[in-house]
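REVIEWER CHECKLIST
Item 1: Sequence provided? yes
Item 2: Single chain? yes
Item 3: Sequence as submitted:
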Amino acid sequence: MSIEMKTLSTFLIIIAGSFSIITTSVSCAKPDHSADLPKEQQIVGQWYISRLELNIYSGSVLIKDSIIPQLPNNFVRFDAGGGFAYRFNMPASTSGTYQFSGVDSIISVTPGNTYRWKFLTLTKNLLTVSNTSTNNPSYPGATVVSFHTFGRR
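Item 4: Structure as written out by the authors:
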């Protein structure tokens, strides 16, 4: 066998081996089917608050846009039985219940607060929601749009 034939044979073996490894790796990868689950199952568990943004409007004019600084142990938790807990920059969490509203929202009720969040993103590790309020006591007469970003650790 000539040197050119050996080189060609070696090259073809390397290509075939690489193709086999790539094909095996791709075919063995498990796809993420968490998005196929109903929202009722996807939401269950503890989510850490990684970002909270507030947009405050007077009429249609944006008067304030801010990201609220936060403490490291902020979270929201949705139990499978409809229990809800929320902590944001407080020493203790508030507890209550939650239920789904239509296909794109969740309503959580705690003593003193009702949260109505519209789903923007819901995956295995990321939940983003928005809420619009016209009766926020901290901003009387304004429309407050909040965006929460939750993640799993």
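Item 5: Key structural point noted by reviewer: The two ends are 59 Å apart (CA to CA).
Item 6: Recommendation: ____
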